[in-house]
Amino acid sequence: MAVSDRTWHEVFDRDNGCCRYCGEDLLLSISRYRSAEVDHLLPVEHSDRDAVEHLVLSCGPCNKSLNSVRARRLTTFDSRKSFLQSSVHQVGYLRKYQEHLEKRIARNLGEG
Questions:
Q1: What are φ and ψ of residue 94, in 5° steps?
Q2: How much is the mean pLDDT over the chain?
Q3: Could you list the residue range(s) of the whole structural domain that residue 14 is in?
Q4: Which one in 1, 47, 65, 96 has a CA-CA gap of 20 to 30 Å to 87?
Q5: Rounded to an integer, what distance in angstroms lies between the CA atom of residue 23 and that of residue 32?
Q6: Domain contains 32
């Protein structure tokens, strides 16, 4: 669920334009800036979920990863960050990254 423009910019400024989960500087390029999202720490049913103190700046990939059923039950910044940094979560991404990288290298070698 989106927050107001004013709230979005307030969170962006407070978090100095960096994803609070991975530290990515979202001002390094316009595409990174455009991928910036605000993550809600509290569930939808919570009446105060759009309050700035319950929001954090997130890059798109981190926020997308937090959409899993397991992550949605995590309602503190520290628990959500730990989830993203967990080896179980990272291993899947690393494995898929390696697969894509190997395919690209194989394609490029086949073209040369």
A1: -65, -40
A2: 87
A3: 5-86
A4: 1
A5: 12
A6: yes
Cα 110 to the center of its chain, rounded Å: 35
Q: What is the pTM of this model?
A: 0.75
Count of domains forming the chain: 1
Average pLDDT over residues 74-84: 89
- DSSP class of residue 36? -
Residue 47 domain flag: yes
- Residue 103 covered by a domain: no
Structure tokens of 6? 């004013």
Residue 105 located in a structural domain? no
Provide the token pair at 46.
């919570």
Across residues 79-89, what is the average pLDDT? 79
Helix segments in 1-112, DSSP class H: 5-14, 30-35, 60-65, 69-72, 77-85, 87-111
57 three-state secondary structure: strand
CATH of the domain at 23: 3.40.1800
pLDDT in tens, 12-31: 999 999 999 999 999 999 99
Tokens, residue 48 = 């105060």
- At 39 the three-state DSSP class reads strand
